[in-house]
Amino acid sequence: NNNNNNNNNNNNNNNNNNKMKKYIRPFLGSAPVVELGASPGGWTHALLGELLPPLQPGSNPCRVICIDLEDMDKKLMADERVMFIRHDFCSRHVLEQVRAALPGGTTSLVLSDMSPSLSGDRSTDRSRFEHLIEGALAFAVRVLKTKGAFLTKLRRDGSEMELKKKFQQVFEDVRMMKPDASRSESAEIYMIGTRLKI
User: Is the pTM higher than 0.85?
Assistant: First the structure.
């Protein structure tokens, strides 16, 4: 179901708080960041506006490769620093496009702010989230440099510890964190895996 990576994300994208920024800063360099579920563009704004270091003269202007089934903010889509791919990230064609756009076919950081379409059934929604995150993790592993990092949104629904074990199989350090700006009762959390092992 292609709708499973329809992030339809709203102001939640603005929860790019200092805690998460601290963890991703060491992985920001000259290579473009790959962003899954980029619409409407909260992370992209933060990356371009304050997080990414200045480019060296003569460098490729592309700083963020954004993938989503929905269009992003029009200004971001027209920005030369953004490469936007309107497609399902699970497509082999998308993986090839991303690799071709990255220096050496790899990057130091992949972000995912995706959420599946929710049915209201707890078991079904939990399964959809797991499937989506596992797919994003598999994608990240294919484009990350050794010692790279992957940050993803997930829900605190009982599956997070099993997902953490899967992250620990491929990353040396795995942490879970709650956005500072999210409500205390919110189930939304983030997981970051750093220093890719393979």
Answer: yes
